[in-house]
Amino acid sequence: MNIEQLREYCLHKKGVTEHFPFDETTLVFKVLDKMFLLTSLKAWEEGIQSINLKCNPEYAQELRAAHPCIAPGYHMSKKHWNTIQLHNSQLPTKFILELIDHSYDMVLKGIPKKLRDTIK
Fold it and tell me: Which residues lie in coiled coils (predicted)?
């Protein structure tokens, strides 16, 4: 998976926008103004591809135990976020996309229904 494939996948989800709220290299994808994926474009250019994803706390622990390339979220809440090192992982693309979906769903679930119903 390259950065354009990641970007395209995220932007095709309902209500998703992309932002650079921290600096010009940290790309953030949000649904209804809530982050669900962060990544560093500078790191991708340097060959260190990683993404931060929101995760159910229990599932986050399971993922970390099962996959050495998944760690507590870098510069994020260690309970609710994971960092996935894509550059040195053997994770199938399908599984990575499922983790992105899980993050999106976790964030969307936390948004009031009235707001959720506004996305198309």
Answer: none
